[in-house]
């Protein structure tokens, strides 16, 4: 949540909105609705306020989590949930058991300059991502936007010491 000055050995990896995967997951939801179908037992369907993002690990080893760099253009809240999907996923059949805990919750209050978060959960979540980076080149996240916040109003990354 806090912003530090950049230094040598720092690696900042941005959240990239995956439009194609988000569309694909929405089509799965629409398809089930049109057919009066039911999701698989335990399947996670994408809600309208949820979007899929990815982080590409350009380096996988010796990463130590430093901080989140989340910037919100307006007041609102974003919840960041990691997935345990291991390879290039077909997240259209994402199961609830593939959602990682803890989640990162970031918010900006009306009139505030700074983004706030639950520091303990954000720290634990960041450390877990650093561990998972050892075995992954890409990690997928579900970002849920609330209180009127939209994807275009978010700029986010995870900062590691490399």
Could you characterize the architecture of this molecule?
The protein is built from 2 helices and 9 strands. The mean pLDDT is 90. The chain has a 6-stranded antiparallel sheet. Strands 1-9-4 form a 3-stranded antiparallel sheet, with helices on one face. The two termini are 19 Å apart. By secondary structure, it is α+β, with helices and mostly antiparallel strands. One of its GO terms (biological process) is signal transduction. It comes from Amazona collaria (yellow-billed parrot).
Following the backbone from N to C, one meets helices and strands in this order, namely EEHEEEEEHEE
Major β-sheet profile: 6 strands, antiparallel
Tell me, briefly, the overall form: globular
Strand content bin: 25-35%
Topology, number of strands? 9
Summing up helix and strand content along with how strands pair, one would put the structural category as alpha+beta
According to CATH, the homologous superfamily is Olfactory marker
Cα end-to-end separation: 19 Å
Order of strands, widest sheet = 2-3-8-5-6-7
What's the CATH architecture? Answer: Sandwich
* Helix amount: 10-25%
Average pLDDT across residues? Answer: 90
Oligomeric state as shown: single chain
Organism: Amazona collaria (yellow-billed parrot)
Protein name: Olfactory marker protein
Pfam families: Olfactory_mark
């Amino acid at each position: 949540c806090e912003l530090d000055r950049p230094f040598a050995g720092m690696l900042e990896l941005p959240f990239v909105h995956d439009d194609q995967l988000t569309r694909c997951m929405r089509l799965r939801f629409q398809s089930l609705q049109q057919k009066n179908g039911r999701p698989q037992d335990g399947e996670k369907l994408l809600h309208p306020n949820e979007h899929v993002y990815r982080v590409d690990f350009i380096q996988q080893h010796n990463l130590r989590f430093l901080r989140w760099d989340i910037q919100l253009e307006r007041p609102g809240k974003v919840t960041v949930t990691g997935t345990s999907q291991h390879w290039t996923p077909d997240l259209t059949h994402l199961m609830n058991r593939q959602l990682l805990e803890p989640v990162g919750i970031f918010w900006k209050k009306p009139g505030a300059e700074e983004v706030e978060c639950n520091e303990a959960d954000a720290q634990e979540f960041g450390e877990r991502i650093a561990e998972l980076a050892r075995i992954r080149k890409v990690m997928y996240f579900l970002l849920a936007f609330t209180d009127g916040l939209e994807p275009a109003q978010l700029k986010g990354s995870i900062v590691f010491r490399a």
